[in-house]
Structures are given as C-alpha cells and as structure tokens.
Amino acid sequence: MEPAAAAHARGRLFMDFYRDPFAKVLSQVTKQLRHVGFPFLLAIDGACCAGKTTLAQALASKLGAPVFHIDDFYLPFARRTPQRLQMPGGHIEWERLEQQVLGPAAQGVSLVYQAYDAHNDSWRAERKISPQKIYIVEGTYSLLPPLEKYYDYKVFLKLDTGSQYRRLQKRESKEKLIGFINRWIPEEERYFRDYCTGSCANLVFDTSDRR
Predict the structure, then answer these.
(1) Beta strands 40-46; 153-158: pairing state
(2) Helices 52-63 + 21-36 axis angle, to 10
(3) CA-to-CA distance for 45 and 178, rounded, in angstroms?
(4) 107 burial level (CB within 10 Å; 0-12, 13-18, 19+)
C-alpha cells in the first residue's frame, strides 16, 4: 500500500473498520458534487461480502439515484470462450454496461438496458431510465480498466479473510460457499491484483468486522 502522504496527495482516502461507511461515503460524494456537477457517476467496487450492495442501496435512497448491478451484466454463457475467460473479469460483459448505461449516462441522455439473469440463462425485460443527476454502479468488476474513465468518484471496499468467510457462511449454502472459496474469490483477487483495482479508487474503506 502506498504511503498515507502520497495517498492524500492523490486525493485518496483510506478509512479503517466499519465505522459507518454510508456517512463517510455520502460526505465525500456530496463534496465532489460541488466541483463535478451533474451527471455524476459513482462506482462501488470491492471484495465479496464487503457491503457493496448495501452501501449502494443506502446511497441510492438518500440521493435518489438509480443503481446498476454488475451481476446484471454477466456475459451470456453462449458467448463465453476460453480466450475471453482467461482475462480477469472476462465473464463480465463490460461492453454492454458501457454501451447501454455508462455512455448514455455520461452524455446526460435517456438509456435503455437489459439485465441478463445468469442463474437462469435468460434476459429480463428492458428497463428505460430517463436522464438522472446521479448514477451508481456497484459490484466487483465495476472498475475494469475500460470503464474507469466514466466515473466521477470511485469507492473500493475491502475486508479481511475471516470477516469475509463468516459473512459468506451466513449468506450462502454449503455448496455455494465452496464455489466462492474455490472459484469466485480467487478470480476476484486476480482481478484486484492484475489491475491494481484499489489503487484507482478515490476512497478505500475497510469493512472488516470489529474486534
């Protein structure tokens, strides 16, 4: 991790432990809005079970912003190739997120997108969103390199291994827990490592359980 002085020089903040990330992030976003204006695009990336969706929903409720979930932008199974899946985050159809959501949102125009349900290998009904002041994208892989340029503020949530495992135990079945441990967590860690994801964030927040 870079020295604190260098981090502050780059406008990044590191916040430790779960001391109410909603209040901290809301405060930082509100400050940025004064300088950036609208439309304002916010990304919340980070580790599995770090609280990305919960934070996004809380901010959306307060700010009146639509939330776009990375889980809705999985690459359909029929289009997955060995070459594509060799890339960190290759199972995410970031092109669709860019074309249907981020591009139009940044331009301040209406957008129409269609979520893909990976569990059922099916498409949901199209959703139309009129121009908004604020947009929130949440989920691991939100900060894939081709997408970074669209965001006005980037948040990265991390947590320690013990906290992550305890939360997964509460949330998932034993079968799914094994899948997370053997596949999904190593895959997201490769993404964090290869793309230095946390280093591009404006705010890094540790949501590990209090001790």
Answers:
(1) parallel
(2) 50
(3) 23
(4) exposed
In the DSSP assignment, the letter for residue 157 is: E
Q: What's this model's pTM, rounded to 2 decimal places?
A: 0.88
Per residue in 63-79, pLDDT tens?
999 999 999 999 999 99
DSSP per-residue codes, 108-138? T--EEE--EETTTTEEPPPEEE---SEEEEE
Alpha carbons 164 and 208: distance in angstroms, whole number = 8
Identity at 142, one-letter amino acid code = S
* Angle formed at CA 73 by CA 170 and CA 160, multiple of 5 degrees: 35
Q: Specify the pairing of strand 134-138 against strand 40-46.
A: parallel
Tokens representing 145 are 């390199």
17: left (phi over 0), alpha (psi -120 to 50) or beta: left
Residues 139-154 have pLDDT tens digits of 999 999 999 999 999 9
| Ordered domains of the chain (ranges, CATH) | 16-206 (3.40.50.300)
Structure tokens at 13: 């903040």
Residue 37 and residue 49: Cα distance in Å, rounded? 31
Do the beta carbons of residue 111 and residue 104 sit within 8 Å? Answer: yes
State the residue for tokens 């939360």.
167
Which of helix, strand or coil describes residue 10? coil
